[in-house]
Amino acid sequence: MSTEHQQYSTHNQADKIQEYADRRNIQIVRTYADEGKSGLSIDGRASLQRLIADVESGNTDFNLILVYDVSRWGRFQDADESAYYEYICKRKGIAVSYVAEQFENDGSPVSTIVKGVKRAMAGEYSRELSAKVFAGQCRLIEMGYRQGGPAGFGLRRVLIDQAGQVKGELKRGEHKSLQTDRVILMPGPDAEVATVNQIYRWLVEGDLPLAEIVKLLNDQPIYTDQDRPWTYSTVRQVLTNEKYIGNNVYNRHSFKLKKKHVDNPPEMWIRKEGAFDGIVPVATFMAAQEILAERSKKLTDAELLDHLKALYAECGRLSGFIIDQAPALPSAATYIQRFGSLTRAYELVGYHCPRSTEFLEINRRLRQLHPEIVSRTEHTIAELGGHITRDPKTDLLTLNDELVISLVLARCQTAANGHQRWRIRFDPAKFDPDITVAIRLDAANTAELDYYLLPRLDLPDQEIRVSNRNSADFECFRFDDLNFFYGMSERERLQRRV
Predict the structure, then answer these.
(1) What's the CA gap between 42 and 34, in Å, rounded?
(2) Number of domains in the chain
(3) Which among 147, 153, 154 is positioned nearest to 184, based on CA atoms?
(4) Of 248, 268, 295, which residue constitutes the final position of a domain?
(5) CATH assignment of the domain containing 451
(6) N or C: which end of the chain has fewer CB within 10 A?
């Protein structure tokens, strides 16, 4: 199904399907609806996946599937994909009818030809729409308007009308309500602007490594625009994004038709220079780019190992944290990318990490702990009268046929300074749960410490970094136990009063 703003809203489809069923004396016993989901891929479409799983497993109390039209399977770029899902249903003896089509899906040559054409048209519609939307976005960028994404630390999103008059600042999570309105960036609070310029001075004048800048910011403490501690990547983003000198840059990365993430070369970028009021002098920004480019100069494998060997001789041991703190070395991620793992890089310089065995042992414990927690959750919910099913491939839990739940373990990582941190990782391209239950482990990674119930709308694309001290907005999702979560599944019998 589609979103409320599209031609085929869920209510319209449901009404037409019900009318079709009433005319033919068909009783609707189940509804599978993916509201607001992209039809380009089956990933993230939990209801369609559940329908196919129910059909293949025989968990069906119906012999007919009513679909609004051929395109509702999806606007797949491979037209055979939607045909494949229909074939799965027919193979299990379940017929498929299209309520808004002008033909009967009776397997005749005419219906087969028409369906093939409509499947191809559905995919072509997405391709044409993608091209039109991209062209429109590029045009707005060249006119100096912001296209999506947070403003960033030190900047604010401001809403203007079609006459260019400022209507007000957009807070985090707020969006424009009128299509004729536009969004631009403006300097944020003076304190944030001063911090941004201080970051540049630390790099340009002080020649500090990014890890040291991160430490200086977190020691004050100053939090990012997301109310989180600073990291290497967030500092680097401030130092490299041209929006801080007022330039509007778009199409640096693309994910067209949900096929593949692509880092586009600079000649494909769409830019508007001087679109906003910059908060960093251009000369300072360009000096920062030269420093970062020199630091990220590509080293050969032999040079990387020579640097690592020298660091080993200096420190007597190695770790990802030590590598990231060393100003003359690339990040630990570079060694992982080049040599496959840090352990392999250590071996090549003659260092045998005593923690490698410990790390493997922790992984072994986590592999045992996760299914135990999933099983315990299933058992507790069943005792409370709730209905829960588990996908054996993904371990996603479907609660009362209403909510899709993901249970995620966050291991504790203790830095050399004693600070503890946790990474809660997500994979929205593969899993799209309604609620993620993040289980934070204790310092020994042997037991559960606490829990975060994170709704889908508040989740980032990849991960959340958690420490012992987090923002109040984020801590409202934290619970000492899962009693609140279990309460969501409890069902009570209603009695009719006579």
Answers:
(1) 10
(2) 4
(3) 147
(4) 295
(5) 3.40.1350
(6) C
The Cα–Cα gap between 77 and 435 comes to: 30
Q: Is 249 helix (H, G, I), strand (E, B) or coil?
A: strand
Residues 281 and 306 in one domain: no
AA identity, residue 291: I
Query: Are 318 and 396 part of one and the same domain?
Result: no
pTM: 0.49
Which residue has tokens 């588990």? 390
Q: Which domain holds residue 136?
A: 3-140
* Residue 72 DSSP class: G
Question: Tokens 């330039």 identify what position?
Answer: 247
Task: Give the C-alpha separation, 32 to 418, whole Å.
Answer: 49
Q: Is 476 helix (H, G, I), strand (E, B) or coil?
A: coil
CB 247 within 8 A of CB 272: yes
pLDDT along the chain (498 residues), means of 10: 52 88 91 78 82 89 91 83 89 91 87 87 80 79 79 89 84 78 89 94 90 89 87 88 88 66 78 87 92 80 89 85 75 81 86 65 73 81 78 80 85 76 71 83 83 75 76 82 78 55
SS3 at position 95: strand
pLDDT at 497: 57
116 domain-assigned: yes
Nearest CA-CA partner of 343 in 376, 308, 374, 373:
308
**173 within a domain of the structure (yes/no):** no
Domain shared by 329 and 268, yes or no:
no
